[in-house]
Amino acid sequence: MLRSRPVALLRMEGTIGVGIRAHDWVPVLEGIRRSRRLKAVAVDIDSRGGSASASDYIHEALRKVAAEKPVVAFTGNLCASGGYLIAAAARRFIVQPAALVGSIGVISVRPLAYELMQRIGLAVNVAKSDRLKDMGAFWRPPTEEEEAKEQALVEEYYAMFLDRVSAGRSMNPQRLRELATGEVFTGRQAVAAGLADALGTFQDAIDEAARLAGVARRTRWLGPRRTLRQRLLGPVAGALAEEAYERALAVTSALPRYY
Fold it and tell me: What does the pLDDT look like over 30-67, one tens digit per residue?
């Protein structure tokens, strides 16, 4: 009879919304939550962040797992912005001393190319249903109304970010706000500030997850299926191709991106 492997191991690596896709990871997390065989989770996160909405979606899915089973997050390199939001859903967060952690905040980024277009004689013809339909367009400067609305969206995402982290980390909101300037901290600084729980390795995270669940340290790796690009090009080249595609989409889309 095969021995059970009750500790699920996950690795989330890359930009959220590109290398880490919510529609890939949420079903995986829901499957872990429903599984009777899996008793604990250790998740290794290496991400600078990404899409605000995708980060929040994955955070909520991981939070639901952590409400029923021990989840321990770990980072050995970078766990910033949306990556930190995901880690905040875990019951415990272990970090490598030299890792970079934090960057709690939101930024909206979009290119403005209208001056360049004027110099090269390129114009865009637009027909729209109302004045805000092309809000965020790169072919013209934003209006004062659009800038105000965009700032309001940033502040709304920021408030949600703080609420999630405060609840997940059981942190005083005022103390969290002092740390949520967008800056990053080393692993040592993050533990001292209460943004992480302990220094250690991914093996330490695995051991802690098993200890909290009261199960043997027998593990299995789980994750989404590789995308078509990754299967055709290989994991590294596929991830680079997806990153390039996302950047090109950001340049050509009229919608601002929130990170």
Answer: 999 999 999 999 999 999 999 999 999 999 999 999 99
Say whether 108 is catalytic: no
- Domain containing 247 equals 7-258
Task: Tell me, yes or no, whether 18 lies in a domain.
Answer: yes
In a domain, 2, yes or no: no
* 99 found inside a domain: yes
pTM over 0.70: yes
Residue of 47, 51, 81, 103 marked catalytic: 81
Average pLDDT score over residue span 14-23: 92
The tens digit of pLDDT for each residue in 68-87 reads 999 999 999 999 999 999 99
Does any domain span residue 235? yes
How many structural domains comprise the chain? Answer: 1
**DSSP letter string, 103-153:** --S--EE----HHHHHHHT-------SSTTTTTT-TTSPPPHHHHHHHHHH
Q: What is the CATH number of the domain that holds 151?
A: 3.90.226.10
Q: Which of 205, 250, 227 is nearest to 42 (CA)?
A: 205
> Measured between alpha carbons, how far is 95 from 200 in angstroms, rounded to an integer?
6
Active site residue 69: no
